[in-house]
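[recover] target loaded
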């Protein structure tokens, strides 16, 4: 009996030792950090449900794609996937069953991740609780539901390959470039897309539109949308969700909650250094709103906005965002400005700034013409130079938001 006990104990020790070699605490913790740099939880989790259990709808111009369950559940998750399977999905956009993934999963960015980082994420996911939960089917019309079409898309728009450092640049710059262009996949939101959903490379990080939000220009070099931000202010925004210029709302709130606030200051600084090296083309002067629009917008602003944002648009830094110089306000695409006026906004609570700030909705109070007037006034005042907003644009977005809420 004693020899049987010793043999069983020895086998258990060998089994534990083997497990520790592949899922040691340091490896799992490393994977947790890398998963955070890619905001994996934000996309693969329905708010209020188990982390990484999938099912979250991802609206696209072509239909709705539901993020899959990436816990190690045997039936509905990736419990049967090997590390090679996981690597092929992340690096090449191909599932375990050989089917091609849609680029709503940002494998065109994740392909830049080295194998050891992808393996660490695999080990981290393997250490999490398994959750058996099926994701709803995607809602894509034929022929877009035919995944084989992605072979042609990949041929035209996807170049697989791990990030290669630029020897002419500093290690810090290269780290920032890797984070922004690779796991951080910033271009997925902040780059304009063509008719088939691929990045317009000539518009890289100069702003895009996603799910009825306009993601602004985030280049920090000459003429960039955040050229007036210091490196420290970029780091502060990514770490705390706000800085002297703005506060994060909507989709960016989730990026900060699940990703950037969890990253090291050194990595955030590297991202700032990289963004600082990116210039944007100079913008041509925008058409000025009619004087009647400016007069109406000025009066609406004085009655509804000036108490928080002040008469001169300077706001209260880190509390009520300045409108003067705001990259959201100055964006050629007015969608975010209109949407915030219609729906209001709430800043993200973070570990550093746990108390969120809110702006009320004005949809109940202001007509489409009034919202267009005040938006046009703000976008053309205090040094801002963005095109005026039309009543039809406001009306169209209001209707779209109503229809989206109804579903």
């Amino acid at each position: 009996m004693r020899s049987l006990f010793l043999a069983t104990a020895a086998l258990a020790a060998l089994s534990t030792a083997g497990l520790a070699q592949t899922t040691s605490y340091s490896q799992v913790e490393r994977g947790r950090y890398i998963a955070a740099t890619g905001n994996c939880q934000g996309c693969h989790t329905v708010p209020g449900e188990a982390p990484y259990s999938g099912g979250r709808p991802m609206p696209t111009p072509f239909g709705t794609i539901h993020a899959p369950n990436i816990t190690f559940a045997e039936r509905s998750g990736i419990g049967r996937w090997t590390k090679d399977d996981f690597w092929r999905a992340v690096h090449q956009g191909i599932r375990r069953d050989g089917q091609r993934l849609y680029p709503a999963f940002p494998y065109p960015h994740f392909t830049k991740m080295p194998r050891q980082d992808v393996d660490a994420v695999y080990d981290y996911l393997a250490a999490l609780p398994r959750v058996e939960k099926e994701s709803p089917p995607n809602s894509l019309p034929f022929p877009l539901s035919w995944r084989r079409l992605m072979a042609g898309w990949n041929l035209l728009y996807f170049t697989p390959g791990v990030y290669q450092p630029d020897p002419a640049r500093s290690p810090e710059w290269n780290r920032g470039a890797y984070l922004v262009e690779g796991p951080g996949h910033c271009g997925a939101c902040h780059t304009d897309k063509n008719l088939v959903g691929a990045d317009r490379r000539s518009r890289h990080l100069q702003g895009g539109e996603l799910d009825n939000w306009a993601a602004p220009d985030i280049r920090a070099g000459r003429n960039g949308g955040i050229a007036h931000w210091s490196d420290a202010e970029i780091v502060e925004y990514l770490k705390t969700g706000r800085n002297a210029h703005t506060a994060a709302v909507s989709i960016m709130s989730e990026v900060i909650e699940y990703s950037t606030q969890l990253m090291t200051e050194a990595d955030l600084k590297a991202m700032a250094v990289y963004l600082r090296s990116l210039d944007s083309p100079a913008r041509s002067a925008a058409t000025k709103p009619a004087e009647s629009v400016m007069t109406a917008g000025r009066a609406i602003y004085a009655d509804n906005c000036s108490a928080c944002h002040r008469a001169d648009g300077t706001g209260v830094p880190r509390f009520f965002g300045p409108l003067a110089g705001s990259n959201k306000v100055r964006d050629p695409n007015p969608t975010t400005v209109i949407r915030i006026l219609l729906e209001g906004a709430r800043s993200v609570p973070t570990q550093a700034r746990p108390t969120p700030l809110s702006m009320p909705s004005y949809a109940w109070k202001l007509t489409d013409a009034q919202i267009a007037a005040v938006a046009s006034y703000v976008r053309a005042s205090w040094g801002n130079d963005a095109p005026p907003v039309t009543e039809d644009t406001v009306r169209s977005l209001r209707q779209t938001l109503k229809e989206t809420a109804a579903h």
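[recover] notes: The beta strands are 57-60, 63-66, 208-210, 213-215, 345-346, 358-359.
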